[in-house]
Amino acid sequence: MEVIITSSYEEMSRVSAKIIASEIRKKHDLTLGLATGDTPIGTYEELVKIHQEEGLDFSKIKSFNLDEYVGLAPLHKNSYNYFMRENLFNKININIANVYVPQGNTEDPEEYCKWYEKQIENCGGIDLQVLGIGRDGHIAFNEPGSSFASRTRVKALHKQTLEDNSRFFSSIDDVPRFAITMGIGTILEARRILLIANGERKADVVAAFIEGPVTSQITASALQLHTDVTVVLDNEAASKLARTEYYNWVRDHKHLVQKMVGR
Ligand code: F6R
């Protein structure tokens, strides 16, 4: 796991957008896995900037979002579909026919989840998966106790997630209790994973998933089982890590490290 500690939310956003842009330049028809929430807003703003100023081309990109609230139609203002269009899709030249966000108001969620997995497979699998992390350690909506073999399915949301996400709704009672989410198994099949986190409120869980044991109680710790994970943090989210000096040495000697380990 490569851990990059940056000095601010803005720098975290710039660094992560550069990583995504560089993967798109290497493979113009990349399949991108995308997250919603507060964390990636700055990254998406930076990507829009790179698209406008440097002509980064999304026309052949395919994208799959991690999750969506059950019961919310794609046009609902609190849906993740709406979030993605507002924060990214409407501002870049992505072909909307190549965009997949789980459909929250599907009539048959079980069949729909199988179909979603099939679409990922038909697109050749996810090349780069962008992730945030919840305060309960979730990636996507894989709440504590989720199986590391899980696939896209409906999941009941943890109380902490309902509380954290209630800021977008008029009250906690309006937050949907269920979500369609990619599984840990689905996420671990992505060729490369980029997790971003910022703010002091994420510091404990960031230290736990990077430096603690692999446990389904903190589902992000499953990323320790993947061979190509980059974590980009601001200094607040990194503040409880024990091995900061090592991560910074590796970051500052990137050319040497790349020469020696071939990445
Ligand atoms: C959203 C998602 C979630 C969020 C996480 C952090 O698509 O998959 O796992 O990444 O809840 O949310 P924020 O960024 O709002 O702190």
What can be said about this structure in brief?
By secondary structure, this protein is an alpha/beta fold.
CATH architecture: 3-Layer(aba) Sandwich
Helix content: 25-40%
How many DSSP H or I helices? 9
Query: β content, as a range?
Result: 15-25%
Mean pLDDT: 97
Overall outline: globular
* Attached small molecules: fructose -6-phosphate
The H/E string reads EHEHEEHEHEEHEHEHEHH
Number of domains: 1
Characterize the structure shown.
With 263 residues, this protein is α/β, with parallel strands linked by helices. It has one domain: 3-Layer(aba) Sandwich (Rossmann fold), CATH 3.40.50. Helices cover 35% and strands 15% of the residues. It is built from 9 helices and 10 strands. The protein has helices at 9-26, 41-54, 80-87, 109-122, 159-165, 184-188, 203-211, 244-252, 254-261; strands spanning 2-5, 31-34, 62-65, 67-69, 99-100, 128-131, 153-156, 178-181, 192-197, 229-233. α2 links the parallel β2 (31-34) and β3 (62-65). α1 (9-26) crosses α2. The longest helix has 18 residues, at 9-26. The radius of gyration is 17 Å and the shape is globular. The two termini are 12 Å apart. The model has no long low-confidence stretch (mean pLDDT 97). The structure holds fructose -6-phosphate (F6R). Fructose -6-phosphate binds at residues 35-39, 66-67, 80, 132-134, 138-140.
Give the SSE map.
Blueprint: E1 2-5, H1 9-26, E2 31-34, H2 41-54, E3 62-65, E4 67-69, H3 80-87, E5 99-100, H4 109-122, E6 128-131, E7 153-156, H5 159-165, E8 178-181, H6 184-188, E9 192-197, H7 203-211, E10 229-233, H8 244-252, H9 254-261
Parallel strand pairs: 1-10, 2-3, 2-6, 3-5, 6-9, 9-10
Antiparallel strand pairs: 4-8, 7-8
Helix pairs in contact: 1-2
The protein binds fructose -6-phosphate.
Fructose -6-phosphate binds next to loops.
